Fold this protein.
Amino acid sequence: MRPSIATDSLIRHFQETTGSWRRIINDLSTSFSSHDVVSFCASQSATRFILTWMRELKAFQDTFGTLIRRHKRPPIADDFTAAVALTLDLFLAANGLPEHVHCERATHRRRGATRPDISVLSGSHLVATVECKTDFGWKRKTWKADCETRSQDLKSTFPDCTTFLCVLMDKNFDATELISSPLFNKEWYCLSRMPAARLSNPILDSDIFTPIEPMFISVLECVKALAPGQPTLLV
């Protein structure tokens, strides 16, 4: 039986969406390749890309939800992880280190393995993880202890691993512990103080709280430290 016109349109929609993502990835890769460390940090292009993705996703969910009368919008947590992972992967690739980033990969095959949101490997070595949170939800009271325990557990098995935390916004929890920590803006980051739906178009400097670019550079150094023959500084 021949597919209906609606089915054809649906198939074409997803095919065109895949094509759009290929172009987006190519454009972002080209952008990263054109920067040195100074201009990369100054442009904050990775941070702006991630925040734009979250803003546009929220707008789409609201429009689509209204269209189909969906009363509960799906969470954007998985897309936030995907946005951070994709930009980090393209940044490392632009600096000669492709295919080092993995999502939801088990740390090892033995009992007690965890699945960090993002794992970064250098060869077979786990050198960095990134936990991505849109907010802390039900764990708003215990997030700090949870992060410290997770970091200690990983360090006990992978002593070369640096654990990072990336929070989308400082809403729905008391951010005082985050901001006052010596790890803030070194291993713990909070990209914005604005809800995704209220971010400016285009993203303004005032929308950004702690840009993610220093984290990416730190991850790059972690990978290069265990990559034979690689220089230790971004060029």
About this structure: Residues 36-225 form one domain. The chain has two domains: 1-34, 36-225. DSSP finds seven helices and five strands in the chain.
